[in-house]
Amino acid sequence: MFDLLHHLYENTGISHIDWRMLVMWLVVAGLLYLAVYRKFEPLLLIPIAFGALLANLPTEGIVEGMEFAGQHHPMKEDGTGGLFYYIFQGIHLELFPPIIFLGVGALTDFGPLIANPKTFLLGAAAQFGVFGVFIAAAFMKYIGIEYSLQECGAISIIGGADGPTSIFLANKLAPHLIGAIAVSAYSYMALVPVIQPPIMRALTSVKERGIRMRSLRRVSKLEKLVFAVLIMMLCIILVPAASPLLFMLFLGNFMRECGVVDRLSKSAQNEIINIVTIFLGASVGITMDGTYFLTPQTLGILALGVLAFALATASGIWMAKLLNLVSKNKINPLIGSAGVSAVPMAARVSQVEGQKADPGNFLLMHAMGPNVAGVIGTALVAGFFMTVFG
């Protein structure tokens, strides 16, 4: 009888549960709380949380054939892989991030950026956060956490607040860190309304936060179409390594603005991006196995992620203040923080903080300029890192 019970026990997953799994269950609970009750990036955090939960349960038929975090999981006896072996190919073959960018492009209005080109500088300034954290990551070796230059590049892009770009670059430079980098990027993107406001208030006066900007001019359809084609060509010529992301971003945007392929544009905005988002999030989550996730190296990435967001936010604000020294038409420095991407949440934060200083001030459309500029800027920086370290 005892042998029978012992045999049954051995054939359940109970004996495989360890403390790392229990910790990761708490992490999953935290992600679900942020997604469901705080409504922070729920479209991604829910699939990531479920993938992470699955990664920390004793499963069969899930990860066979996968290779991540330096571990290879053998194929099944019949030579086939587990469920996520096939789903994960979307990341491994670099399909999901560019497809997400197709949808992002179809959802994005570049009009505010075209109407006020100066705001491109705010998106560019936010990239200082990326380079700042690259240096910080390199110096982590002095406290016992060492990253290679490839890993430093992959980690620092978190400051761009662009999840697909973070995953795309991590897969190129540090595939074993995809889980930690993606979770850090998306979690902190979800926490933009929490992280940014204290920094914005600390770096600006009430008078600066109350600056009212001139209304944006109307941008014609032709301008938007020419912008999409020319900027795509220019960016790809400058940084060919970022071609997959930039091509799909501007293809989606051209379909949106041309007005003759509404069916394709709506598909990119809805069905395509939604389906890929589910698989992307779940694939990222499945790499969050507690055995590999709960390490000093991963915890260092989470700390650097916060620093990246803070530096990127501050850089955008400082650039806006610098422009105000030489410009007649003043810029509200709050929109500089939107250069971290996180479209459109960062722009909404600028709007909310601006209205606290002046309830009649509307900054949302002004903030969309640096917001979308940040998407382009982060993709270019990712391409730069791929060129240098890839």
Protein described:
There is one protein chain. This protein has 390 residues and is mainly alpha-helical. The chain has one domain. It is 69% helix and 1% strand. It has 21 helices and two strands. It has helices spanning 2-10, 19-37, 42-55, 83-87, 89-92, 96-107, 111-115, 119-125, 127-139, 149-156, 163-173, 178-190, 192-203, 206-209, 221-238, 243-258, 262-285, 290-293, 296-326, 345-357, 364-389; strands at 67-68, 71-72. The protein has a two-stranded antiparallel ribbon. Helix 6 (96-107) runs parallel beside helix 16 and helix 13 crosses helix 20 (345-357). The longest helix has 31 residues, at 296-326. The radius of gyration is 22 Å and the shape is globular. The N and C termini lie far apart (59 Å). The mean pLDDT is 89. It is found in: Cell membrane. Keywords: Cell membrane, Ion transport, Membrane, Sodium, Sodium transport, Translocase, Transmembrane, Transmembrane helix, Transport.
Largest sheet: 2 strands, antiparallel
Whole-number count of domains: 1
**What would you report as the Rg, rounded to the nearest angstrom?**
22 Å
Helix and strand sequence: HHHEEHHHHHHHHHHHHHHHHHH
Q: Please state how the strands of the largest beta sheet are arranged side by side.
A: 1-2
Number of helices: 21
Helix content: 55-70%
